[in-house]
Amino acid sequence: MLDTNLANVAGTYNQLGYHEIRSQNYARISVDSKITINADGTWQECDNTGVNAGKCQ
Questions:
Q1: Which whole-number Å values give the CA distances from 11 to 7, 22, 26, 35, 41, in the listed order?
Q2: Tens of pLDDT, residues 20-52
Q3: Residue 54 falls in which region: left (phi positive, over 0), alpha (psi -120 to 50) or beta
């Protein structure tokens, strides 16, 4: 079942994986971050490691 009510998925989640950068010949860049999804649909991503370590966007 697909839930489309954002209030039901609001919370804090961890992301561990990688991004592929198309403009850099699909280079793989590791990702270790925390993502907070709010009930109103806004979200914030905070990097744990890497270039933006300790910063939230």
A1: 9, 30, 31, 8, 11
A2: 888 989 999 888 999 999 988 899 999 888 777
A3: left
Supply 9's token pair: 């998925």
Residue 34: the pLDDT is 93
Q: Is the pTM of this model over 0.85?
A: no
pLDDT band at 18 (very low <50, low <70, confident <90, very high): confident
Name, in order, each residue with C-beta under 8 angstroms of 5's C-beta and a sequence gap of 6 or more.
none
Three-state SS string across the chain, please? Answer: CCCCCHHHHCEEEEEEEEEEEHHHCCEEEEEEEEEEECCCCCEEEEECCCCCCCCEC
